Amino acid sequence: MNKITLLALLLFFNFGSSQISKTNFILEIRKVTDYPFNPVISDKINDKIVFKKEYQFLDSLNFHSINYTSFDNLKLRGFLIEPKKKGVYPVLIYNRGGNGNFGAVKSGFLTEFLSKIANEGYIVIGSQLRGTSVSEGEDEFGGKDVNDVLNLFDIIDQLPNADKKRIGVFGWSRGVMTNFLMLKKTNRIKTNIAIAGQADLYQTKRPEMFGVYRERIPGYAKDSVTALKSRSSLLAIDSIQNKNVSHFIIQGNKDVKVDVNNAFAFYSKLDSKGYTTRLLVYENEGHDLEVVNDNLLDQIADWLKRYL
Question: Of 120, 169, 227, 246, which is most buried with the most CB atoms under 10 A?
């Protein structure tokens, strides 16, 4: 998958605007064909940017940057992709991985992955979270940042083309933790897609993550056990509000960042609680699942058709 810098993302989304009436958020829109030239998705013919055949579907979508306000009055940035065709569409909230600027959603992932989900007939929306170069505040890695995502419901409720009763979440890596913490706080989520998520933060096999915890999580130095338990995806299962939410757990068995046993732990507990749950493990795949990108998109599309 092409890697485009966060700076490019900002350039892509800082032109033109169309405002929704409520003052707590603004949608900014720009046509993909007006973006700086990206040779992965387009060709330049006689100084005109033309989509490559496999990316011509991008012209049927609107890409937005969202400027919105957090519950504690921070200025935050998010993104939204929607079909241009008139209609009412189910909504998928994408929860990003990483921490701080690392893992922020970049334009390549928007145009080469999330847009393909939107093209199946969905509104895809997400937050860059507090504590990045495009949002104010400090990243709390499962703290107040979870509310940054929950605030997206207020935006969804004002979108005339959004089906408010069909909302799902899709998290990758750290985003899986965000998914499960959201499920503790709202009953509005119909389905949960979780890729490469750590079930228990204490069980990580990456020693550097404890440095992230110390830097990002308030109160970690004083009481690490309480801080990490409150962010445990596995423990959150006991407090899920919507008892009918379905779960799709996806993992590569060669993931060196998140051991595949985390996926089995998720499946075992969710299944024991009676949730509709599917586990998909890709052989010889790592954390990013790049080699199986097309199959992954097909699997997600099929799941959403059935459960959202």
Answer: 169
Count helices and strands in the chain by DSSP H and E runs: 11, 11
pTM of model > 0.85:
yes
Residue type for position 103: G
Degrees, nearest 5: CA angle 89-91-93: 160
**Alpha-carbon distance 70 to 186, whole Å?**
17
The count of other CB atoms within 10 Å of the CB of residue 206 is 13
Residue 41: strand, helix, or coil: coil
53's CB contacts (< 8 A; 6+ apart) are none
Distance from C-alpha of 109 to C-alpha of 56, rounded to nearest angstrom: 16
Token pair of 63, please? 């890409």
The tens digit of pLDDT for each residue in 86-134 reads 999 999 999 999 998 898 998 889 989 999 999 999 999 999 999 998 9
